[in-house]
Amino acid sequence: MRDYAFLNIPQNCFHGKNIPKKGFYETKIFKPSDRRLFTSAIEKIRWVYVLSHGNINIKPYKDDVREYEEIHVIEVALKKDYKLERIAEIITYRIPYPLLLIYRHNDKMRFFVAHFRSSQRDYSKNTFEDMYSSDWQKNDGALLAKLDFMKMKMTNFFTLYTDLVDKICIHNLSTLKKVDDNITGDEARILLAKVKEIEKEIEKVKALINKETQFNNQVEMNIKIKKLEKIKSKLIGGDAQWKR
Question: What is the pTM of this model?
Answer without folding.
Answer: 0.88
